[in-house]
Write a structure and sequence with these properties.
Blueprint: H1 2-27, H2 34-62, H3 66-90, H4 97-125, E1 128-129, H5 132-151, H6 166-190, H7 216-250, H8 256-266, H9 268-279, H10 283-308, H11 322-339, E2 343-344, H12 346-364
Antiparallel strand pairs: 1-2
Helix pairs in contact: 1-2, 1-7, 2-3, 2-7, 2-9, 3-7, 3-10, 4-8, 4-9, 4-10, 4-12, 5-6, 5-10, 5-11, 6-10, 7-8, 9-10, 11-12
């Protein structure tokens, strides 16, 4: 019975990404009526669930932290392509899209995904246990890149407004790539054990228990289907983005809400995968996904938009306003206090979710 169920799930997760990709081709650059947008949204959800399944297969085959790294990087690369595409099409009004989407990704991952994961694991197992060395290293990189890329532009004087000059933007792009590259090397080579799940007694879990790993062929198929599913997710998200922008404008909401919605859609695979890991008491895997996604979002988006700015017609605004800088500082302080004890209670999870709720309220009502 279990074998048949697994076979049916495997077939479903192969068919849906392919069909979603076909829907993407049929609807690309088309003006979509309301009922088509609803159909596209259904395939978008199906592609997200398929991506989570294939990411877990790859994670099981390769082991941690490679599985969470593959999902985080894959989603971020396609997210970057979506941002650049929307900026190229949007003109002046999209000048803050990269900043809004990256900051939304940082808030959602560092407060939403992390807070939910800690809350779920702590409620089920009394405390959520993780490795402070790996989580602290990721936090240090996020704090550095967020400050260099999103805070400093507000205070520079070489260019008017919260923008970098060409030299400053080049520095931020290079620094983002170097720091992110060093983090990946630390995570996967030199100190891989810092990013592995641990037991409440501190024992490192270096392999999946009670399940044999998938074959190389199955992992290869999942890698291919993960790529197809993620392309479909971001492409379909772009397809429904005009509807989102129209709804935001009609509701009289700030344009920054568009960046929040885009970040929420593209981060759905990481959110579901992180929560499933938390249910299995593998909180370190959840934190790898959350903080790794935040770091990848900054480390890959800033260099990409720096290159794209050479042919984009509008300005590139990266500097945060004062309210968002306060939220960023609060997030970093809370993350530090959460990481240091190596374990967390439901209280820490709820506090992070409160910060996310504050961010959402300010996005809707600045």
């Amino acid at each position: 019975m279990i074998t048949k169920l697994r076979a049916s799930v495997a077939q479903w997760t192969v068919v849906i990404p392919v069909v979603s990709f076909i829907v993407l081709i049929l609807t690309w650059h088309e003006e979509l009526p309301g009922w088509v947008v609803a159909v596209v949204a259904c395939f978008l959800v199906g592609a997200v669930l398929s991506a989570v399944h294939h990411a877990e297969v790859i994670a099981h085959w390769s082991g941690e932290p490679f599985g969470s790294l593959v999902l985080a990087v894959a989603v971020t690369v396609i997210e970057v392509a979506l941002i650049v595409t929307l900026m190229a099409d949007g003109g002046e009004k999209s000048s803050t899209l990269a900043r809004d989407t990256v900051f939304a990704a940082v808030m959602i991952t560092c407060n939403g995904i992390l807070g939910l994961s800690i809350l779920v694991a702590a409620v089920k197992y009394r405390t959520a246990v993780f490795n402070a060395e790996g989580t602290g290293a990721a936090l240090a990189c996020i704090a550095t890149l967020a400050t260099l890329s999103l805070v400093l532009p507000t205070f520079t004087t070489s260019s008017p407004g919260p923008q970098f000059s060409t030299t400053q933007l080049a520095f931020a792009a290079i620094a983002s790539l170097v720091v992110y590259g060093l983090f990946v090397a630390t995570q996967t080579v030199r100190h891989r054990d810092y990013f592995l799940p641990v037991t409440p007694e501190g024992r490192v879990l270096d392999e999946e228990e009670h399940a044999s790993p998938p074959t190389l062929r199955a992992a290869g198929v999942s890698l291919l289907m993960l790529a197809v599913a993620l392309v479909a997710v971001v492409g379909l998200a772009k397809g429904v983005s005009p509807t989102i922008e129209t709804a935001v404008d009609n509701a009289g909401l700030p344009h920054a809400v568009v960046g929040v919605v885009i970040a929420m859609m593209v981060l759905l695979p990481e959110t579901i995968a992180a929560l499933r890991a938390a249910v299995r008491n593998r909180v370190q895997t959840s934190l790898n996904l959350a903080l790794g996604s935040a770091l990848a979002s900054i480390g890959l988006t800033i260099p990409a938009v720096a290159i794209a700015s050479n042919w984009l017609s509008g300005p590139l605004v990266l500097g945060l306003d004062s309210a968002h800088m306060v939220l960023l500082a609060l997030t970093i302080v809370l993350l530090t206090l959460t990481v240091i004890p190596r374990r967390a209670t439901p209280l820490q999870g709820a506090v992070h979710l409160a910060v996310l709720a504050g961010y959402v309220v300010l996005a809707l009502n600045p």
